[in-house]
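Input/output pair, single chain:
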Amino acid sequence: ENEDELLLLSSMEGLPLQSNYIGPDTPMSRGDFAKSIVKSMDIPIEKREETRRSRRKQPEAPPLFKDVNKNHPNFEYIEEVGNRGIMVGVDKFNFKPNEPLTRAEAYTIIIRLLGFENLSPMNKNYTTGYKDNNTIPAWAKDYIYIAKELGMADRGEYFYPNRQITKGESAKLIIDFINYLQKDLKNDYRENVLNN
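Output:
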């Protein structure tokens, strides 16, 4: 399941093609998801120009998160999504790059990429329509509601927001997001944003 999406994401360098690494049922780490987002969306990595003069006068900026040093394999991707506000740490100082990503976090990130986080109902007493609506973290409810309305989230009875998202599910979510950008964004923007 989701093998086509995994291979497509791997072809974009979002995941390495090593078979022991891209098992569809293995959890997706926060750091690997950051890399998958940057690579699949072709987000440029901001690099500071270094000159002889700048090396002497300006100290190097510390990492955005205390638990992600410059030697971490996903350092530049985590820094980029953090600086752009696409992904946030688990707290102000820590990203937990090797921790599994939850479904709530993944869908929140995708809706942030779209910039649609403000499209949820103004009345915050709404429901997402999932039977486990009460288990959805308050910070993720708007994002999951929007993802469901756009057809990006599962249409089943349960969302399972706190379950770890697998690499297969992550690949499908990212590929569905790319397809949405290519096919549906113009219509949804016209219907849902301009007409409201």
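The mean pLDDT is 84. The CA atoms of residues 68 and 75 lie 6 Å apart.
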